[in-house]
Amino acid sequence: MATIVPVTDLTHPGLSPYARLTEHQLRNKRRPEEGLFIAESPKVIGHALDAGYVPVSLLMEERHLRGQGRDLISRCGEVPVYTGESDLLESLTGYRLTRGILCAMHRPPLPEVEAVCAGARRVAVLEGIVDPTNVGAVFRSAAALHMDAVLVTPTCCDPLHRRAVRVSMGTVFQIPWTVIGSRAEDWPHPGLERLATLGFSTAAMALSPTALSIEDPRLREVARLAIVLGTEGDGLSPRTIAGCDYTVRIPMSHQVDSLNVAAASAVAFWELRAR
């Protein structure tokens, strides 16, 4: 049974994941087995629990103890539930809690690329996307629009960043994903070669006058396709574009030159889905 802990001392060590640890510290690269992440809102926390993620503690507004937080408390077992009024918790975390509930959870070990891609026909590859909002939105589109998995490069924002998890609406727990490579130097080479070994052709989403239109029927006929999306602003690196099998663009109108990466991902995932 959970232990309800009213927040009276903001220096309580159990509150560190919510108040004093940065995203980098939560990740704990030196000791990955001790890494944590923060899930925010009942729906997102529920998706994480459904996927088998293990809770460490809950932080919620007092009014939710007998409301929307009650089922979560029962599902989380014997973990501490820190609680207080909304203004107090906002002063603790530095932001207003979405739906009034946070959950600190253990980070699971990341699977190998080969395991994530086994049986996949379409995967998304995110190169150096640094905005957690965009990462979360791309994950949501990938899950909804028929991608089988997501791979992120080592320079990409952590998909378990609190904002990325929240914006993804928990889909980061519903679609297989992992990091392709352990160092920045592992992408685009040998990362692209690794995908080729797994039987994937690669499509770089980039603005180029020689790029194929996303509507080109040849792309739909590719058995296994990795759709590579680049960072905000600069897009994909020239080395990545040169190393991919195809360069693909989304035709634009009204003299618009490009879409935000999150919007472009939704168009690309739908149009290039496996038929």
TrEMBL record:
Q: Does the keyword Transferase apply?
A: yes
> Can you give the residue ranges of the tRNA/rRNA methyltransferase SpoU type domain?
123-269
Key word Transferase present in the record?
yes
- State the species of origin: Candidatus Intestinimonas merdavium
Instruction: State the Gene Ontology BP annotations.
Output: methylation; RNA processing
Where does the source fall among the domains of life? Bacteria
Q: What is this protein called?
A: RNA methyltransferase
Q: Which ranges of the sequence are coiled-coil?
A: none
The record's keywords, sorted A to Z, are:
Methyltransferase, Transferase
Q: Which Pfam families match?
A: SpoU_methylase
Please give one Gene Ontology molecular function term for this protein: RNA methyltransferase activity
